[in-house]
Design goal:
Layout lengths: L4 H9 L1 H15 L6 H14 L3 H13 L4 H9 L2 H4 L1 H17 L1
Length: 103
């Protein structure tokens, strides 16, 4: 699994903070009824909205791993067009394709 170098550096430089951050993430994921695939598609949409390349790529990878099809992932991205704008959507679509093409 690909992880950015800065992510790896942060986790080794601040292990306690990194652990607590992961615990918070797990608690958020367990706070409601959405299944893993739905959570990953929602997080993909959020990442698209803030124009986060790393977030889009991570959420795409996780969505694929949780069983989302390419069509479901692309649909989640297309939904962002009228909310966050064409430039954010098209950038995210490119990042999604980068991840999917590696599989």
């Amino acid at each position: 699994m690909y992880l950015p170098k800065i992510y790896e550096k942060f986790s080794s430089e601040f292990p306690e903070l990194f652990s607590q951050y992961n615990q918070l993430g797990a608690a958020c994921r367990n706070a409601g009824p959405l299944d893993e695939k739905a959570q990953n598609l929602i997080k993909l949409g959020i990442s698209l909205g803030v124009n986060s390349r790393g977030g889009v790529m991570s959420s795409t990878r996780k969505a694929v791993e949780s069983g989302a099809s390419r069509e479901e992932i692309v649909h989640a991205v297309l939904l962002g067009m009228t909310t966050t704008g064409f430039p954010n959507m098209i950038a995210a679509l490119g990042w999604v394709e980068e991840v999917i093409s590696r599989k």
